[in-house]
Amino acid sequence: MEVCMAKVQIPLEKFGLCVITGGSSGIGEAFVNLLAVRCPECRIINLSRSPLGEIKGTNNNIHISCDLSNDDSKKSAIKELLRVIEEDSGERKKLLLINNSGFGTYDTFPDPNLQSQLDMLEVNAKAPLWLTGELLSYLRTFGGAILNVASIAGFQPTPYFATYGGTKAFLLNWSLALAEELRPQGISVLTLCPGPVRTNFFKSAGFSSPPVNQWGGLTPDQVATAGLVSLERGRNLLVTGWNNRLLSFMTRFVPLRWIGRLSAFVMKKMRLEQFQTNRT
Predict the structure, then answer these.
(1) What band does 201 get if pLDDT is binned at 50, 70 and 90?
(2) Which residue among the candidates 168, 203, 268, 269 is catalytic per the annotation?
(3) Cβ–Cβ under 8 Å, residues 34 and 224
């Protein structure tokens, strides 16, 4: 089989549809706002539990209620999503799929409870695989791109964020493999790996205040902007922030059996429990 090494570069203005998960807040909301400015004619379909507020200058935003941890909710959502896509009469058919939804908890496994760990697996790992699989036929027919939001946590074991880090490691490696499978078909796949970002992530993880200053976290707009620029350039991996890029680079030179212990030591030194809501 012939191997195509050329980058797949698609200007944002070429997209007529964008399907995004978790587009109602944080990085997802930043993506939606940026796309509304750059691509005012693009129809943005947001799969999330909560609707996005009104965006000035566009009437092309559609909210489909979906709990990505629930199979029945996903079945209902995909049926509605495919109906909306099939009814689209726009001239531009290229699709941008942004798998953005995700959450984490800071604790020793399986705290705060086992169900939260299982839901994390569903939302962070299974949902991107599911939605990409459902829309791949459309992407192959009309072209487009996939942007998967992973995390710097995917580059190494992350004690006290064990399940979260594990799901992001899956998403990182799966996405990079998918990029090579789809490149010959003209479909680009970008894996976006931010570090800590000033979003509601930390509140969901059980923190009363976000400890992002510990890492010098970026804003959602900075992360989303960098992601879209890299997508247009045809890149398949972006780690945001120079400190995060250095960390991901350094992990290549440390034996894997040591990284988990080193990560646990660093997390304990940072004393993240002081930021938790229910601290004992």
Answers:
(1) low
(2) 168
(3) yes
